[in-house]
Every structure is written in C-alpha cells, then in structure tokens.
Backbone:
C-alpha cells in the first residue's frame, strides 16, 4: 500500500530548516506513521542548526558590531 501523505510539504521543510526545534517536533510527531516525512523534517532541522550558528556569528560579529 502506497501512502501519498508520506512527504513533507515545502512549507514545513522551510519552517523546520529555519526553526530547528519545529523540525525535531515534526520528526517525533510523524516518526511512526510517516517515516519519510519524519526523516525529511529531521534532516532539514539538522541542516538548519549549523546555518543558524554561522548566521548568528556573522550577525553578532560583523553586522551588529
């Protein structure tokens, strides 16, 4: 049986990338019923953490100096 609802929408992918805690929440919410959706949310959140760290460093040291 193919589940068509097992894909993370583009909106939630962007939100979980910009706000990693939401991506982790989506992972734990969907991990049993929709494993592909959960995996995509977790990967997006994991990618968002280093981006946020680098962005915060640049913002604090060069822009808000």
Residues:
């Amino acid at each position: 049986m193919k589940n068509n609802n097992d894909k993370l929408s583009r909106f939630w992918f962007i939100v979980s990338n910009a706000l990693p805690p939401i991506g982790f929440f989506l992972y734990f919410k969907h991990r049993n019923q929709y494993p592909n959706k959960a995996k995509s949310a977790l990967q997006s959140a994991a990618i968002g953490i280093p981006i946020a760290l680098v962005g915060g460093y640049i913002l604090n040291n060069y822009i808000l100096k």
